[in-house]
């Protein structure tokens, strides 16, 4: 029995708001920090479903077995639930300036993640080939850059080392693998080599 990758990713996103609310009620933690985290991560999950409805990635259509879907996608993504668990269960408190930095980092990540996905979707819809302009002019993976920045803001919010380790593991063993596969696919285009030299794989090459 098989189903699409989207099923397991969407299940993870769907559980974010009820999970955070459940933690808040279980630990009776309705602090400013817990509420703002609910707002940030909860908003991201809502935006994710809007993205899925309006401009979903073609990779979501890939079919996987139920076992692989749960073991290599859903269960792996449970690591992203660690940050809210720490923030709420340990009653994490942050200063106003620290919170401002977290929110700014989160906003930057959301911008790169969704804007680049929109550009990619509508560019490829009307013109197939290599995308080298806009969000993709300085980094070959602005969407993954944005996602990593966003989850880094959540890790920073927790003030704990474990969420940072989880992000590093995801980056090295999941995102990096996908980005290298993407580079290999794009190498079929004659202009890819010059494009590769003026961009970085993940971080934007501004200079």
Total domains: 2
Strand content: under 5%
Question: What is the molecular shape?
Answer: globular
Helices and strands: which structural class?
mainly alpha
N-to-C terminal Cα separation, in Å?
49 Å
For the residues shown, what is the average pLDDT? Answer: 92
Residues in helix, % = over 70%
How many DSSP E strands? Answer: 2
Instruction: List the total number of helices.
Output: 8
Polypeptide structure, described:
With 207 residues, the protein is mostly helical. The chain folds into two domains: 1-93, no CATH class; 94-207, no CATH class. Helices cover 71% and strands 3% of the residues. The termini are far apart. The mean pLDDT is 92.
Task: Note the topology.
Layout: E1 2-4, H1 5-26, H2 32-55, E2 63-65, H3 66-77, H4 82-89, H5 96-126, H6 142-158, H7 161-186, H8 192-197
Antiparallel strand pairs: 1-2
TL;DR of this structure?
By secondary structure, this protein is mostly helical. Helices cover 71% and strands 3% of the residues.
What key phrases describe this protein's structure?
207 residues; mainly alpha; 2 domains; two-stranded antiparallel ribbon; 8 helices
């Amino acid at each position: 029995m098989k189903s699409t990758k989207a099923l397991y990713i969407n299940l993870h996103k769907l559980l974010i708001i009820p999970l955070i609310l459940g933690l808040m009620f279980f630990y009776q933690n309705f602090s400013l920090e817990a509420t703002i985290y609910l707002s940030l991560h909860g908003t991201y999950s809502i935006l994710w479903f809007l993205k899925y409805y309006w401009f979903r990635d073609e990779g979501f259509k890939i079919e996987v077995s139920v076992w692989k879907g749960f073991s290599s996608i859903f269960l792996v993504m449970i690591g992203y639930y660690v940050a809210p668990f720490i923030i709420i269960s340990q009653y994490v408190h942050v200063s106003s300036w620290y919170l401002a930095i977290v929110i700014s980092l989160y906003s930057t990540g959301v911008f790169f993640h969704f804007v680049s996905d929109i550009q990619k979707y509508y560019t490829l819809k009307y013109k197939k080939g290599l995308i080298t302009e806009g969000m993709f002019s300085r980094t070959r993976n602005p969407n993954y850059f944005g996602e990593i920045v966003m989850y880094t803001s959540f890790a920073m919010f927790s003030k704990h080392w474990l969420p940072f380790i989880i992000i590093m593991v995801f980056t090295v063993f999941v995102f990096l693998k996908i980005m290298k596969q993407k580079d290999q696919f794009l190498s079929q285009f004659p202009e890819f080599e010059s494009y590769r030299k003026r961009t970085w794989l993940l971080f934007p090459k501004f200079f």
